Amino acid sequence: MGFQKTEKIWMDGALVNWDDAKVHVLSHSLHYGSGVFEGIRCYETDRGPAIFRLREHVDRLFKSARVFDMKIGFQREEICQACADLIRTNGMRSGYIRPIAFFGYGMLGVNPGTNPVNLTIAAWPWGKYLGSGPIKVKVSRFIRIHPRTTVANAKVCGHYVNSILANMEAKEADYHEALLLDYNGYVAEGPGENFFIVKDGLVRTPPLGAILPGITRASIIQLATDLGYEVEEAPLTLQDVVSADEAFFTGTAAEVTAIQQMDEFVLGGGKIGPVTARIQQEFFDVVQGRNRRYDEWLWFVEAPRPKSDRAATPES
Ligand code: PMP
Questions:
Q1: 249 Cα: distance to centroid of ligand 1 (angstroms)
Q2: How much is the pTM?
Q3: Which of 77, 87, 107, 165 is deepest in the core (most CB within 10 A)?
Q4: Which CATH class is domain 8-127+296-310?
């Protein structure tokens, strides 16, 4: 991925030039994957740039940090403001925001111990992650990380080895993306996406447990329910997928991406299905500020913040 560089990156409270945003090679998290991170999208709306579910992403960052008892030295509200300020500073209308908290330079050894905790936030323009779809997915020979191997529902850097391997395998076989099963053989998720199927009008998605609790997933469950669809969170077998009418991925990067094929099986006639299309349209209407019913999900970058928003939130 070639970066479309922006002017500034936020590092531990200071704005530095993009090319100067560097860390020491002996940073703990570089060696052991002990960082935690977020991926957030900012959309252009008729009321200026709006960051989608910013608070929920920052909350998840703090939840992930708890895995390592990592103390992030900033309040949630400060981090939200920093993300919004960065979009403004960089003159962006839309794009991707990547906060990462990591153990920095101090000492090596598996236990992060007393290493300093650094927090950086970068933002840059980023288009569609999986193209416009529909896409082809390959069931991976790697299973999704076992919930007893690690705290699987945290967004921890090291977990992405599993995602990288599955994605590389799929790409090598000329698929757009992988689909990983869990340790019981049920469908889990993609390397960076949650998974849904539609069968006879019923929307189904794997339950929380062996997957990342996606913020897009939660949003889609709500939107689909509000549109009048029944949504079921229950284990899915590969047979369920093969016999589904429609399938799609959700994620901050992937947004709502229709899936037209799993391994050799063509799904939904090889094109985006009506339910997926309806949900996808609703999602874009919401994130692009056209559906005001979900305005509370949007953080308008140019809007003055109400006083209550600036109150410090106690950190975990
Ligand atoms: N699963 C995995 C493994 C992911 O990395 C992501 C991306 N954060 C998702 C699902 C989707 O989560 P979200 O909708 O919060 O981006």
A1: 10
A2: 0.95
A3: 87
A4: alpha beta
